[in-house]
Design brief:
This protein has 4 helices and 5 strands. It is an alpha+beta fold. The protein has a single domain, classed as HIT family, subunit A (2-Layer Sandwich), CATH 3.30.428.10.
């Protein structure tokens, strides 16, 4: 895709700070650095997001997560790691090329806030709706 910023990074048209690369993926530091080492893991082939990928394609991308994630945690002294992936604008996707955010965590107040809000939904009704019943 000629206008995709990640495609341009992959093609070497825009500089990036790479931490991993192979034939299928590239991992580079996110320019926002939510925490030290915040890395994006990106397939070299353009997909809008995970919703546009097959299970095999998603599996190939996620198969690289342990190597890059352990590299970040081990070498930066992180105590943990969040993996974030957004699909479509409503979910926070701003670059429409599949990517995973690998966010090293150092402390609860290190700059990343990921909180879940509890709701009292009818779980059986939701499951039936998901299953088309």
């Amino acid at each position: 895709m000629e206008t995709c910023i990640f495609c341009k990074i992959i093609a070497g048209e825009i500089p990036s700070t790479k931490v991993y690369e192979d034939d299928e993926v590239v991992a580079f530091l996110d320019i926002t650095q939510t925490t030290k080492g915040h890395t994006l893991l990106v397939p070299k082939k353009h997909y809008r997001n995970l919703l546009a990928m097959t299970g095999e394609e998603v599996g190939a991308l996620f198969s690289k997560v342990p190597q890059v994630a352990n590299q970040l945690v081990d070498n930066l002294g992180a105590k943990g790691l969040n993996i974030l992936q957004n699909n479509e604008e409503v979910a926070g996707q701003t670059v429409f090329h599949t990517h995973l955010h690998l966010i090293p965590r150092y402390a609860e107040n290190d700059g990343f806030i990921g909180k879940f809000t509890q709701h009292n939904y009818d779980l059986e009704a939701i499951a039936a709706q998901i299953n088309g019943k």
